[in-house]
Amino acid sequence: MSTATATHHQDDHHAEHPTGIMRWLTTTNHKDIGTMYLTFSLIMFLLGGLLILAVRAELFQPGMQVMQPEFFNQLIGVHALIMIFAALMPAATGFANWMLPLQLGAPDMALPRLNNWGFWLLPPAAILLLAPFVLALLGIGDGAVATGWTFYAPLSVQGGIGTDFAIFSVHLLGISSVMGSINVLVTIFNMRAPGMTLMKMPIFAWGWMITAFLLIATIPVLAGGVTMLLTDRHFGTHFFDAAGGGDPILFQHLFWFFGHPEVYIVLLPVWGLIPHILTTFSRKPTYGYKAQVYSFWAIGILSVVVWAHHFFTVGLPTPALLYFMYSTMSISLPLAVLFFCWIATMWRGSMTFETPMLFTVGWIILFGIGGLTGLVLADVAADAQYHHSYFVVAHFHYTLFAGGIMGIMAGVYYWLPKMTGHMYNEKLGKLHFWLTTIAFNVTFIPQFFLGLAGMPRRIPDYALQFSEFNMISTVGAFVLGLSQLIFVYNVIRTVRGGEKATDKVWESSVGLEWTLPSPPPYHSFSEQPVIK
Amino acid sequence: MDAQQRAAANRRLVWKLMGLVALAIAFAFALVPLYNVFCDLTGLNGKTESLPVEVQSTMKVDESRWVNVEFTSSVMPGLAWNFYPKESSMRVRPGEIMLALFEAKNMTNETVVGRAVPSVSPSQATFYFKKIECFCFQEQALKTGEVKEMPLRFYVSPDLPKDIGTITLSYAFYHVASATN
Fold it and tell me: How many domains does chain B have?
């Protein structure tokens, strides 16, 4: 196979790219766009955190102290939408942009201009989501979407203009995700270096490939569902209105047909990057590469056929309950394969615990708790007790904060020296890890107990017997929130300067991205490397 | 692969993936009729038929057992009517044709049109609850202060599974339109 040059992109008459704001508005460079995605994600992560700290402040004590219940309802829904669509997903897309071309030996993403458009849809989407808060201050409308992130009908058919803003925001976010997915898939299928077969790809690319397929299959269903909601609200249709022959339960089916795969959309890129970190800091090859790839496929396929376990209590017939229970539980089998592979990669390795590795090991344990508590919820008989309780809240924060955000943070510490050319401050990184892990558990372990004791989620006030656990949880949440400022400081410090990173950065890092200088030049792999 | 070949290959793959996106959108909207067909076929959701059934002359009354039929009613927000069943439950023989009466009163000073939406539980009984005549087949209009007796003529099919002893029929009345007198 020849090593043909790939210097054909319109952005390749480079060297003099525009500076200042125009550089960022018009860039088609995968590294610039990756940086924008990651920066956007970090800003939204802090904003989403602020919203939920207001919620935790209200829940510090029983009774209403800080805000009105209506505002409380708006905060929880917007917190979730921001964290999922504007923090977690863009962070994963940012890594895809930065790292996929470097890992695959490609000069850039396959569709650079689409890439730019995909990113620049995100800020308007975030503004649409948040604008109703500001409009309410000006006396227009009654605030942001107050239905929770799930938009359940008929509540969402009745809500104020905040719901309409959120629907259009979801449309933009969806278009952006689908464009990003198409870009990732074309890059993976068409832009790999000569000799890199699919089964020789870095596992991060595999994780992203499944995520991209899931996004393409499910985001349109969400978009369709919220569009029906919009026409129900304003154009006299009755998709979800029983009076006109519609059915509110149909909305739950549409929403969770997207909503459950969404969990794996968020997690698969993380499952992809974790093995890279494990193999680097255990100084051993990845254990069970093939098993991991097949498990990704199994989980990806299973994830679209289990959605109804999110609403076991609406009155599904027994055969459906059984089917959704067993299919949901069967996901734990390929997931267990992944856990064994991660642990086996570390087994008898020469392990060292730099910050990325600390986050990864912490991630395995905490994500494991998230998975096991999910099995409890998948049990139909038990779910009748736990449904819509704080147990659910604690469970999905173990999967999405520990399993999602802590994994992303491991990736940030792992790749930041490569991206910036500077080493981050190891002491601050370790401090950040320990504070995050401890505060995270202080926040969410009490919520398991609250859920078991019967405290429902999404309420601004609660019975007196829940006071102590809520107090502990709020204290944990504030420590968790504040300790993220260490992370922000550390990242900014690393971007601006610091000890120079070597090309390999880590002692035994493996992969094409580590063959490039740190930071990699603006245009890399114009001459594609050949993989033997 | 040279630059042009790669660009062409990328374009082809993009169109294929756009096809997948189009399929997914079509699937989302196809779910609406599919969901209804699924519910009609299986009787899930307790949706009874919205057309009267013909009584078959061959049907025999099953004297060997009783079935309890319970009626509940609710008025949805936006409709200021009183609406209730005159009898809250009946003991019937499967196959026996029965008449149940509901009463509705318009509490507003407008003519109001409403529609009753039925639901049967347990949902396994949906297919066996047969309506010959029902006020829920049409929209109902009530003038200011008007009281109307609303009939439901039904039978429980003798094929009803033996393990179902009680059937609950629930009506929710929804607002359709109002007109000032």
Answer: 2
